[in-house]
What does this fold into?
Amino acid sequence: MTEIAANTPALPSPAGGGGSGMRPASGLIALLRHTRYVLSENPVTAFAAGLFLLIVIAAAFGPFIVPYDPYASNTAMALKPPSAAHWFGTDQLGRDVFSRVIVATQLDFFIAIASVALVFLMGGLAGVAAGFYGGWTDRIVGRIADTIMAFPLFVLAMGIVAALGNTVQNIILATAIVNFPLYARIARAEANVRREAGFVMAARLSGNSDARIVLAQVLPNIMPIMVVQMSLTMGYAILNAAGLSFIGLGVRPPTAEWGIMVAEGAAFMVSGEWWIAFFPGAALMVAVFCFNLLGDGLRDIVDPQRRT
Amino acid sequence: MKRRDFLKSAGAVVASSAVTAPAIWSPAKAQARQETLLIVSESGPNNIDIHGVGTNVPGYEVSWNCYDRLISHEMKTVNGTPYYDRDRFKMELADDMNVGDMSVTFKLKKNATFHDGSPVTANDVKWSLDRAVSVGGFPTFQMGAGSLTKTEQFVVVDNNTVRVDFLKKDRLTIPDLAVIVPCIVNSGLVKKHATEKDPWGLEYTKQNTAGSGAYRVVSWTPGTEVVMERFDKWAGGAQPKVRRVVWRIVPSAGNRRALLERGDADISYDLPNKDFSELRNNQKLSIISTPYSNGIQYLGMNVTKPPFDNPKVRHAVAYAIPYQKIMDAVLFGLSKPMFGAPAGTKTEVAWPQPHKFTTDIAKARQLMAEAGYPNGFETTLSFDLGFAGVNEPLCVLTQESLAQIGIKCTINKIPGATWRTELNKKVLPLYTNVFSGWLDYPEYFFIWCYHGKNSIFNTMSYQSPKLDSMIDAAVDAAAINDTAKYETNVKGFVDLAFADMPRIPLFQPYVNVAMQKNVSGYQYWFHRRLDYRSFVKG
Amino acid sequence: MLRMILKRSLIAVPSLIGVIIVTFLLTRALPGDPAAYFAGPAATKEAIEQVRVKLGLDKPLIVQFGNYVADLARGDLGTSLTTGQPVATDIRNRLPASAELTLLGLIVSMLIAVPLGILAATKPGSLADHLCRVISTAGVSLPVFFTGLILVYVFYYLLGIAPAPLGRLDTFLSAPPRITGFYLIDSAIAGNGEVFVSSLKQLVLPAMTLAIFSLAPIARMTRASMLAVLASDFVRTARASGLSPATVIVTYAFRNAMIPVVTTLGMVFSFLLGANVLVEKVFAWPGIGSYAVEALVASDFAPLQGFVLTMAVMYVLLNLLIDILYGVIDPRVRIEA
It folds into this structure.
């Protein structure tokens, strides 16, 4: 049982201090050093970071490095199992599954990034404002979040995409709206608890403006939880798009996208052509997996309390 | 000791897992299983009365089996499968049919009773036919297709005799009395449940069967299952062999296939083509494939707007479609090709029949250039998401092929609910769709799909006075049995439709039915749904 | 406490009104035309108009909304065109199926995830920690419908140890007399072992699918907040004053760490109900999720509105519960009214 104490980082606590605020240039170097430390301490995060790099490469250069045209059909080669020529086999129209999986990275990555960025802007800021100011701001934000939250989320996303049309923008928008309450509530709860905290009081006493306190004190302190959420939501965003594809509300064919490829391949599972759904499913899983693990790792990096 | 216990428990696990699938524990259940036909399909009824507002196609199946009509069709054999005979009628509730010059008279079977025991009378028949032409929507529309539109047409002669008067001579009138819609309803029972707002008692029959048919619904859980039991006093024909029908709704095609392969389900008929082609090969099940009567999947073009107002562009598209690829990769051969008839083939007096176009990209390019589109154009290619299994790969292949002649398509998936709305607007430039008519006559198909009166199924908004006149002439000739004139006009409108090519026939789809080896008695009907009355199990 | 509950319930009213308005507008913005859909395959324009009048869809939007609200006030949720039944009946019949499945999924998930999260937090960086991350993360990284299909493929199709994915009971058994609508409870009350076992067997795969999916958020939130709490001043103080590690974790850390976990639970439940939509489709589960999808595809307004409203009311109640728990666990959080 003593390992618990040993493994729990010995904690200095500079975060309580009043004026530390934004860290200047030397902070960046410290951050990098700290990142390296965390990566070396935490093989899973290092692994995730490696995966992330792979995903970024695939997203950036995918279309240039794939062995086949991902959209070219070849019905003579339809439904062939994985082989040396087609690593992941071919689909119903004889398209190379490997090429499609790689090319799809770009779109899925974009959906994930865009929707998370959007919801972080909308939900995170609204939540912090609500938690920090309380009163009417809190009530309005809370009401919006409650209303959205009262919807079954996936059904709301379906409704939005169905009503606005199934385009990538609407999938991103729907995903962001659906996740809004998650961000708003967590940000609010964290900000609310901290608004009376010592370091905020101290900052206020030393004459800092509200905006400065929010940006310099409250926001950095709630970042860890937000980052955990962002990493989770990156994954959810892709899963959300996949779910929408499954019921026919995803991107347009023949666009390569992991979710729609799984949905198309699902019909072939029972007849034994497992590879059509399996490989995009695996890619989907690896990407979501990577975002999630990375989120955990990021938390360790940015968490001011764990920084040594 | 310990080892023995272990073996025992391991044995128990194996034993219990062996019975899990059908899970027949009690003898009563095994008995029930033997007398029950278990059907699995993708969707179930929303209303078990075909006269209801918006009854869906699965609802038709319940109506077909739980209600009787005055007449029905005899069976013939096509490719070894019993197939309804368009031209021969058999009596169902009627004991006798007497066709006069401007009317037809039916004598009812004396022993016919409804499920509640009350006798079937001429008043019931009149009330039911009145109902069909009065409720509006689809039933009234279908009755109209056989020139049955007014309640005055249905006359009670005596308690046991009904006469149907013709408004005009129409060869579709009698066949139209044998479709699902003119079913005979227990008027006494339904009237009890009718209200001022609902004079035809539609609310009651939506949930309850009030017919005289071979089966009656004993429980219905919408979206889950329909349980039907045999009506032992059925007078419409020989007593069916199957005592109980359980119809389970299983949305996932993979699950439906698994259920069939493991022997848990007896019948399914809406699996993807690929599954059917494989199930046929592995011999575990009986598979029956029959082409849709009077049905075609086609690629339609909106001829009112450029670029598809130009026949050369339409021909170019017809030469650019990857027909054979679609047959192989999308349909797995389970459809009848409607393309590539050899050059010298004579036009037949039949529909559907193949056209002479084949995939010929060079010719298509040349036509595009002649039409003034050497560099092609952009358009959208739409399909109904409800049938994505066939439509999506079909559209992807077509999109790829059209790109070779410079036509860049964006594929537009339209959800089932919206599909009909979009078709109705008649603004989709390029799309694929299926049409099939219950009444299997070429002119019936052409009235809906090509005639200038522009029904919803003339999705191309095609207008040709010449074609219209030939359709009308064929209809008139059929009514007075003028065979020569009829044949000339049918050949004429088929030829013109292929020359103008506002819609490009692709293939005639198959109805595929998969059943266990111990199940037999499948019959093909114009409505393409199952007729439980002929099935035998064991 | 009672006053707080009352106040909190009153606050929920505006968000329910919001839900009613948004749902109404959203369903009306759907591109489908129910009149065309239900007029049948061969309908003419006139036939479609007839159906439209019958459905009351020819009236201006505001009148339709007024009618809808008036019906709602009488407890009438309208009639589903897809199933043909009153929406209230449909929901009453289907809600227990979804609730039984979701709750079972959530319970299974919590039983695995909370201990896993605590274990991971107490030994950060250890093998257990990494394992926790990998297992829970792998679960959430699969789309639920894919997990469901794979489970069916493996356990039903290949191994044959799971029953056919055909709803809540074996085809040849009939449902227990309805008391709660939960087949497990009802059959136990009726003392019908055969039905109990059968419904449990049917529940295993879909509940597993849901549990796998919800493992990650719960485990991760438990771990994250447990870590934060373990690093806080008061835990260090408790530790420094010589309390045993077990006491520190259970009495001090766990209680405080549960705040975000409780919040997460509410959201996970909502997520699960969403995921249910897809799981129910795969397992032919006669719940309200599949009901809603069918309604959406058919542009069938009434069930969609009824479904969303039911969910909204359930969610408000759940939230209330969470807020109460919140107050109990962490007195620092003021409940504003």
In short: The interface with chain A takes residues 253-255, 257-258, 272, 274-275, 278, 325, 328-330, 385, 388-389, 392-393, 395-397, 399-400, 410-413, 415 of chain B (CB under 8 Å). The first helix of chain B runs from residue 2 to 20. Chain B has three domains: 3-66+213-266+516-537, 86-189, 296-508. Residues 368 and 374 of chain B are 6 Å apart (CA to CA).
